């Protein structure tokens, strides 16, 4: 018997952005009915390759073959027609449309016509049941938890009859139980004969769910191996070219005086919705307080209010001195002058000015520092020189200070923000999702830097959706859900399961299926949101 044609075959794909060769002569075969992982360092070229497959970019050279046929993919419509669906890291859903409207949007001639709505509702219901992707079709996207939004993205692809699904870092926004559930769904899809490409930095996920894994390095496809015949250590080495410490090496904390004291902090967003409902916490010198939680439960607002970018009420003291809680404006600057550094969760909108160069971004927010002034002008030569040093130390690739922020890969953008904030040697570091989208080699380095700051007696408030990161870095862990701290634990007295439940607002371990307890809690929250929005 002859083997079936690959679901996807790429032959000799190359793509350059100016001097950067993002993809070099890449060939890969993905067999139907398999889950194929793609891993690689930041900037290795994974997103570029997937963007070519999905019709966002045109390759400079090479061919795409789908199910044995040479296929041109000039745009994403052509990709959809070829049966390819993509679940993006940043969901592309219309927030004030319902689930149903989002699913059919653009999929049908005539858009949102009434007759097609009824039919579509039926199809959606069937798909949701078949693949355990239950969501309320009439709910507005803006009321949905991120995990449920992701289900909508998958449903949208399935509705368009995608046979090939590309998922880009899908578990970054999920609790462990939700991630397990997603993997069950992917497994079911595989059993149905669908083909899945999974891009992830998490080797645990690669080992758990994929059949085959390809490794990219500096624009090239360097290895493709069967998952059953490899190990996380080997993959890490293939990816980074050296051995990587897969655990954080750290001594017990020796906490000193209280640096940050937050008392009954509240925040109401511009829609009048209360996002922080009375948060109290303390962080001491030489200590890392980890805030675990699923995105959208008040952690971002906590960082923004503490960082001086959003209004709030309550009391915040820095070494016993109250700091003003104000709105946007120069307040962030006053905080920076008092040695508070802030790595915001969303590097694209808050951490960087995308059109500015890397060197300009390395002083963004700190440019008033007299050191950077030269008479009435900025001392650009000095800033550029320092930027080059920071970029080298944080291994930003390419190490080109003159490149605009938007032209770096996601992980490298993150390194630029971290280089700026950590290199200030702040007394208090507020850090959101420090390793989001960052490869394991860089994670190792960033974690070491955070621990180094702690050991130098600094206070660190770490917000992360990654439980591995929270558990391995934190000296104490607070879990947030729906604007409140649900509980505080020490890392050695808890585990992923307990934290995962708290993250979904479940305070007692359920007897039966954890996923249904989580779904119930999330749906109750979604209903509350919907009521608030009238
Ligand atoms: N539009 C663009 N203009 C210029 N350079 C780009 C552009 N898009 C990507 N690059 C460069 O191409 C290379 C590959 O980037 P790509 O985003 O594909 O990497 P990646 O493997 O997906 O990385 P990450 O894991 O950080 O998301 C990087 O060096 C990046 O700086």
UniProtKB/TrEMBL annotation:
<protein>
    <submittedName>
        <fullName>Putative nucleoside ABC transporter, ATP-binding protein component</fullName>
    </submittedName>
</protein>
<feature type="compositionally biased region" description="Basic and acidic residues">
    <location>
        <begin position="520"/>
        <end position="534"/>
    </location>
</feature>
<dbReference type="GO" id="GO:0005886">
    <property type="term" value="C:plasma membrane"/>
</dbReference>
<dbReference type="InterPro" id="IPR003439">
    <property type="entry name" value="ABC_transporter-like_ATP-bd"/>
</dbReference>
<keyword id="KW-1278">Translocase</keyword>
<feature type="domain" description="ABC transporter">
    <location>
        <begin position="260"/>
        <end position="507"/>
    </location>
</feature>
<comment type="similarity">
    <text>Belongs to the ABC transporter superfamily.</text>
</comment>
<keyword id="KW-0677">Repeat</keyword>
<dbReference type="InterPro" id="IPR027417">
    <property type="entry name" value="P-loop_NTPase"/>
</dbReference>
<keyword id="KW-0472">Membrane</keyword>
<dbReference type="GO" id="GO:0005524">
    <property type="term" value="F:ATP binding"/>
</dbReference>
<feature type="domain" description="ABC transporter">
    <location>
        <begin position="8"/>
        <end position="243"/>
    </location>
</feature>
<dbReference type="Pfam" id="PF00005">
    <property type="entry name" value="ABC_tran"/>
</dbReference>
<dbReference type="InterPro" id="IPR003593">
    <property type="entry name" value="AAA+_ATPase"/>
</dbReference>
<keyword id="KW-1003">Cell membrane</keyword>
<keyword id="KW-0547">Nucleotide-binding</keyword>
<dbReference type="InterPro" id="IPR050107">
    <property type="entry name" value="ABC_carbohydrate_import_ATPase"/>
</dbReference>
<dbReference type="GO" id="GO:0016887">
    <property type="term" value="F:ATP hydrolysis activity"/>
</dbReference>
<feature type="region of interest" description="Disordered">
    <location>
        <begin position="507"/>
        <end position="534"/>
    </location>
</feature>
<keyword id="KW-0067">ATP-binding</keyword>
<keyword id="KW-0813">Transport</keyword>
<keyword id="KW-0762">Sugar transport</keyword>
<dbReference type="InterPro" id="IPR017871">
    <property type="entry name" value="ABC_transporter-like_CS"/>
</dbReference>
